[in-house]
Amino acid sequence: MRFLMALMMAIANIGKGFLNGIEWCWRTGWGLLGFGGSPTVMPPQKIEIPNTDEVEIVRDMARGQQRAVDAMLSTPARCVQAWAAALPEQRDTIPLRGLTEDQIDWLEVRLTDNELKLLADEKSEHKINAALAGIEDAIHGVRSVPSPGVKKKSGPKIDISNRIHKFRFAEGHQPHQLH
Question: Would you say residue 61 has pLDDT above 90?
C-alpha cells in the first residue's frame, strides 16, 4: 500500500515539474518576442521616517494636553463648569466624575440655557461647590441642586411670637407696670 502511495506521489511530482517547465518556456518565448513575459521590477521607494526627536516632541505635547484635561476635570466643580461651557453636541464627551445622580439631573435637566451660561462664567469654585451642595443663592441667577435636609443660606426663620413667649415666662422676670 505504501509503495503505491509513493509511486503516485512520484508521478504527481514529475507531472508538476513538467507543467512548470512548460510554463517557463511559454513566459520566456513571449518575453523574447516583446509581449511582456517577465515582470518589471519597480525601484524601491524612499519612505520618510520621522525623526525620533520629533516623535518625542509630539508625545510630550499629547501627554501635556492629557494632563491639562485631567486638571480641568479634577474636581466636581470643574467638571460642572466645563460641561456648562461646552456646546450642546460636545457635552456627551465630558465625564461627570464625582457627581451624584441628583447633581447630574440638576445639571442636565433642570438648568436653563441662561443658567448654564451663568454657571460657565462663574469664577469661584467655592460658589459652584455651594450650588452643588444645595445652598440657595450660591450663584446669583442659578438655582442650586435641590437636596432635602440641607440648610438654606438665609438660615432658620425667626418666629417672633415664640421668642416673646419665652421672654415673658422666663424665671426671674418681673413684668414692669407702667403708671
Answer: yes
Residues 135-172: tens digit of each pLDDT: 888 888 888 888 665 445 555 555 677 777 777 777 66
Cell of 29: 518565448
Angle between helices 76-85 and 125-133 (to 10 degrees): 100
Q: How far, CA to CA in Å, does 133 sit from each of 33, 127, 130, 137, 145?
A: 90, 10, 5, 11, 7
Break the chain into its structural domains and give their ranges: 1-34, 75-146
**Confidence at residue 62, expressed as pLDDT on a 0 to 100 scale:** 92
- pTM, entire model: 0.47
Can you tell me the distance from the alpha carbon of 127 to that of 81, in angstroms, rounded to the nearest whole number?
A: 11
Please give the backbone phi and psi of residue 142, each rounded to the nearest 5 degrees, phi first.
-125, 125
Q: How many other β-carbons are positioned within 10 Å of the β-carbon of residue 84?
A: 22
Neighbouring CB atoms inside 10 A of 153's CB total 12
Alpha helices in the chain (DSSP H): 2-33, 52-72, 76-85, 101-105, 113-121, 125-133, 160-168
Count of all residues that appear for the chain in the document = 179
